[in-house]
Amino acid sequence: MVRNVINYLKLNRNILESIVADGVEKVKVPKDKLVRLGYCFTYHTHTFTNWKGSTYIYCFEYGYVELGDGWLLVVRERERF
User: Fold this and answer.
1) What pLDDT, on the 0 to 100 scale, is given for residue 79?
2) What is the phi-psi region of residue 70: left when phi exceeds 0, alpha when psi lies from -120 to 50, beta otherwise?
3) Would 81 be classed as within a structural domain?
4) How, if at all, do strands 26-30 and 71-76 pair?
5) Could you give the percent of the chain with pLDDT greater than 90?
6) For residue 66, how many other CB atoms are within 10 A of its CB?
7) For the whole prediction, is pTM greater than 0.85?
8) Residue 64: how many CB atoms within 10 A of its CB?
9) What is the pLDDT, as a whole number, of residue 2?
10) Between β-strands 55-59 and 62-68, what pairing exists: parallel, antiparallel or unpaired?
11) 61 falls within a domain
12) What pLDDT score was predicted for residue 1?
């Protein structure tokens, strides 16, 4: 069971990584694109709620926030030092 969860997390991360190109921090995509690529919305590593109240769902360093009307903003988490 743990192996299955880890596999889903890796799959989700790879899907998000494929959407966010090198050097780009965020990309707006339709939610059904992630569904078509096999993204499993049940599994994530952590969440972040910004000061505006928007909750970002992350799989490792890649995540998304729902924009409404079937759109998501896919983001790469900034490095923290």
Assistant:
1) 66
2) left
3) no
4) antiparallel
5) 84
6) 14
7) yes
8) 26
9) 82
10) antiparallel
11) yes
12) 76
Length of the chain: 81
Which tokens go with 69?
A: 């009307």
Which residues constitute the domain of residue 68? 2-76
**Is residue 23 assigned to a domain?**
yes
Is residue 34 within 8 Å of residue 28, measured between CB atoms? no
pLDDT value at 63 more than 90: yes
Q: Are 54 and 68 in contact (CB under 8 A)?
A: no
In a domain? residue 72: yes
Report DSSP state, residue 77.
P
Higher pLDDT, 62 or 81: 62
Distances (CA, A) of 57 to 40, 54, 75: 12, 10, 10
How many folded domains does the chain comprise? 1
Number of helices (H), then strands (E), in the chain: 2, 5
For 20-55, the pLDDT digits (tens) are: 977 788 999 999 999 999 999 999 999 999 999 999
